[in-house]
Amino acid sequence: MTNKSTSNDSEKLPRRGFFARATAIIIGGVVGIVPAIAGILVFLDPLRRKAAAQGSIRVASLRAVPNDGKPYKFPVVASRVDAWNKFPDVPIGAVYLRRTGDREIEALNVVCPHAGCFVDFVPSRECFLCPCHNSTFALDGKINQKNSPSPRPLDSMPVEIRGEDIYVQFQNFRSGVPEKVPQT
Ligand code: FES
């Protein structure tokens, strides 16, 4: 009787050992994964900060845009943050600003939505012309011709007048598609 009981106990022992080892591995894995996730978040922190840094950018003073209804081109300069470096005051694009009221400004990205060339304003035709495949756009950015190569109008961006300064929520958009899809 005593011998039988001892035999059963000895059969259970390896099973107990297996469960103990499995539990230790699971707990060890959970304990180890927490600092690993924290490390990854710290490593990716500059990328998260880059997203947070995007917003309105001062482009020009209100005085710099004449009240003649014509578009004027301005560079957009900002601090550029890549994954782990910050570069202060570098050109990140350009916009056409056009005064539509005393304190009202429209902003259009200079990049053609077809394939990414820079459009020019042609004063004699009162329109924008893309030199690459001859897309034309009206002063408000709308497509100006039938069968335009461009899949959408020029990309407008929100403008805010703060005191005497013009701020644009600058954004580049993906080219070659009919929707305005922000570039990441
Ligand atoms: S890139 Fe402008 S028309 Fe093609």
Your description of this structure?
With 184 residues, the protein is of the alpha+beta class. The chain has 1 helix and 10 strands, in the order αββββββββββ. It has one helix at 2-53, and strands at 56-61, 71-81, 86-101, 104-109, 120-122, 127-129, 136-137, 156-157, 159-162, 165-169. The strands form 3 sheets. A 4-stranded antiparallel sheet has the order 2-3-4-8. Strands 1-10-9 form a 3-stranded antiparallel sheet, with no helix packed on it. A hairpin with a 6-residue loop joins β6 and β7. The radius of gyration is 30 Å and the shape is extended. The model is unreliable at 1-5 and 37-53 (pLDDT under 50). The protein binds FE2/S2 (inorganic) cluster. FE2/S2 (inorganic) cluster binds next to loops. FE2/S2 (inorganic) cluster (FES) is lined by residues 112, 114-115, 117, 130, 132-133, 135, 149-150.
